[in-house]
């Protein structure tokens, strides 16, 4: 692989070790001299327990590769969507590096269970929710979420420790049906107006972009999309119920 300074120049944090680090085959020191060194098991000297932007992107790309391969084929349209997605959220230069990484990852076998376990043990819950949101967005690249992709994302969610209610909420943002807005807010269709308001406040707090502020402005921008979906769901239900 080439040297991807934008994403890993700031360090990989906990992602430098374990299965994610092994997949990328880098140690943090290789960023300095441009060499590529296989990561050993355990925690290398560059290990940090915090989630860095670089480590988060590495985790995302590994899971994206797994999801893209879930339906047995990788389409140019999917790669184009990922590039567009990355450009919109992280800028052109960063997107170019990310797509190069992704092309390499698509050639590898992804140990999904081990990767998800590493993420669950090291990444906070809000950041994991944002990962799930990214995965559904990319799975919908061709206009719909393939069932094999959906099942894999559901497996990933469970293995990352995402609650079923949160999974259903994020899935409803991309797989629309008659009760999608209610699922987004994690309430039943027969919930009272007061329960609706309480649910909205709870979800707005859960998905507020500030929850991933430690990952940088790029990720706050992406998280804002999810926050807006919560707001739209609330407004749709209010309109349906004639609530001022």
Automatic annotation (TrEMBL):
- Membrane as UniProt keyword: yes
Any one Pfam family match given in the protein's UniProt record, by short name: TerB
Which keywords does the record carry?
A: Membrane, Transmembrane, Transmembrane helix
Q: Which domain of life is it from?
A: Bacteria
SMART domains given for it?
Answer: DnaJ
**Membrane-spanning residues:** 12-32, 52-68
**Domain spans labelled J:** 180-242
Q: Which InterPro entries match?
A: DjlA_DnaK_co-chaperone (IPR050817), DjlA_N (IPR007791), DnaJ_domain (IPR001623), J_dom_sf (IPR036869), TerB-like (IPR029024)
Q: Which PANTHER family match?
A: CO-CHAPERONE PROTEIN DJLA (PTHR24074)
What's the name of the protein? Answer: DnaJ like chaperone protein
Instruction: Tell me which species this is from.
Output: Tangfeifania diversioriginum
């Amino acid at each position: 692989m080439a040297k991807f300074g934008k994403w890993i120049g700031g360090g990989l944090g906990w992602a430098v070790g374990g299965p994610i680090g092994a997949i990328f085959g880098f140690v943090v020191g290789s960023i300095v001299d441009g060499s590529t060194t296989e990561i050993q098991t355990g925690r290398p000297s560059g290990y940090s327990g915090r989630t860095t932007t670089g480590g988060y992107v590495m985790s995302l790309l590994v899971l994206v590769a797994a999801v893209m391969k879930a339906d047995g084929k990788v389409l140019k349209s999917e790669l184009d969507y990922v590039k567009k997605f990355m450009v919109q959220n992280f800028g052109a230069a960063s997107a170019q590096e990310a797509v190069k990484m992704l092309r390499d990852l698509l050639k590898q076998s992804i140990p999904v269970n081990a990767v998800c376990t590493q993420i669950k043990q090291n990444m906070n819950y809000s950041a994991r929710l944002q990962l799930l949101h990214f995965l559904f967005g990319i799975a919908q690249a061709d206009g719909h979420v393939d069932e094999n992709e959906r099942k894999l994302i559901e497996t990933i969610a469970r293995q990352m420790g995402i609650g079923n209610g949160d999974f259903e909420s994020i899935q409803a943002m991309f797989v629309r049906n008659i009760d999608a807005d209610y699922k987004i807010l994690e309430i039943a269709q027969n919930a009272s107006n007061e329960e609706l308001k309480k649910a909205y406040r709870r979800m707005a707090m859960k998905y507020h972009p500030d929850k991933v502020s430690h990952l940088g402005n790029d990720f706050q921008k992406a998280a804002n999309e999810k926050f807006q979906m919560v707001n739209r769901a609330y407004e749709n239900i209010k309109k349906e119920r004639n609530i001022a």
